[in-house]
Amino acid sequence: MEADMICPCSSSADNLVSKCRECRNTSMTSSSSSWSLLSLDSYKVEEYNQIWRVLVASLKGFTIGAGLKGGLAIFALLPRIKRGRKSIHNQMKQEIASRSADVLLALKETLRYGLFLGAFAGTFVSVDEIITSLGGHRRTAKWRALLAGAIAGPSMLLTGLDGQHNSLAIYILMRAAVLASRCGIKSKRFGKLCKPLTWARGDIFLMCLSSSQILSAYILKQESLAPSYKSFLNKHGAKNAVVLQGMRDLACGLPISNIDAVEKYYKSTGLEIKLDPHMKVPCTILHENQSCGSHFISFLIQAYQRALPVYIPVYLVPALLVHRKGLLRRPYTILAKGLLGTARSSLFLSMYCSSAWMWTCFLFRLLKKCNIPMVVVGTFPTGLALAIEKKSRRLEISLYCLARAIESFFICMGDIGCLPESKSLKRIDVLVFSISTAIIMHCYAIEREVFRSKYLNVLDWVFGVPIPLHEVTPRKNRSRSKSCPDIFLSNKDQLNAAKIF
Asked: Locate the Transmembrane protein 135 N-terminal domain: which residues (predicted)?
């Protein structure tokens, strides 16, 4: 025991307890936001540099933000670039100017989101290090990440001051709620209250609930949706504005005011149709002379082609960032998984959009009428398409759509006067985001087991500090260590936590 306490810088027995300044600097405790580094246990990290950790975390955050946003922007611009080439051939200067403006906007958005995540990571790590230096590692371990996450939250303002980002804030709030509920499942005090959240098909139910609001708003009140999301739905919903207007009039019990415009639109596509002004169901407006079944099949094929460019960057960019080392060792395995995931997710999105029209047409035909409640009910089973997706991605997608649905719902309620306007709090999205990030980072520091491994790897890559190879880390079966038996769940609780939603 005494030999372990001797300072490595001296062999004198007088230095059994106290260490020299150099030895203390090289054995200082890391304040990495991982369980082994933020919990009450301390680990030695050699040649640890706080400033370097801040810079590296900021750079990695910027890389993830710019990479994801830039990748999505590139694939969104590809169809416009192709159209731009035709515009050059036809000498259409207005189209060229529009394409240049789209490219400039994409570059600005890429830079903004890169700065946003870079500033968030840098601010969190900076506050984490400052609190550790002032208050000590062990004494501040239980609340340090909570405070640092809250202080880093306003970094969201770097995405732009011209408008609120309610969807992003609500989505992060949903993620924080999931993590908090997973913590509640293994809690003796709140375990019974959180037990219903272990329902295995809860993610599909949330998707159905979200689809009912989102798709109803897409048909009946598009102004309640965020502009970028409305553009996404218009692209993959693949219905012209005059077609949606005709369906909207019929659902609201109004005379169809744009029959001539609908007929003219279909005539421009090479179809001659004659619409009945007194029609009861909008099937003829939606899919001209096609039957509902044949329209579903043809729409599904076209929707799949539109969905592929959406998911290629979703799988490609993480593969380059997270699995960059694995690509060198086993490139074919990782690329095959990426291609399979792209094909599967594209099938989900195409089936989701196609079934939206299929279910509404089926209900209209069955009851031989069209109104707003039937639109809401008809779009509910559309969420069943989520079952196509991989189980690990279902919760992510359902929470994203739920955030969009909540935002749209409250906008609709506000428009009809059911919600009072708050003039004192203009950026409530920043407040919600800060609270959510505080919860998430606290769970990351103290309750790491409630995270899925892929998210944990990304967070460790951004916020973590290198640990000596001889130390036991959370990735080296830390749960088997006898020094912290109460931190990890029992097998039964782990299963319940993994099955949440």
From this structure: 291-410
